[in-house]
# Entry
Amino acid sequence: PSMKLSDSLHTESSSRTDKLADEHSASLGRHPNELCSPFFRRFNALFPQLEDNERRVCGFIRFQFSSFEISQPLRIETREVEEQKRNLKRRLGLTSQENLVEFIRSF
# Structure
């Protein structure tokens, strides 16, 4: 039997997510502070109040992961990622007009 287009698209999306997660989740998922990255050094210095899970989400955002892609290696629902993003905006002192992704990518 042939694969439906929706199944094919889901398989493609899952493959991309798996590949991205494999490339980054080991270090982001376990020890975000240990990354040898100017981004994390600057970001952690400016925002020491963030929890490890919040830093993980910031790292995934930095690597341009979608909310769905972030949810997969963290094993949480996409809506939980969206909630974490809203909380991050508040904790980082961003206004509702400021874009979280652009802010994080500016480091």
Residues 48 and 96 are 22 Å apart (CA to CA).
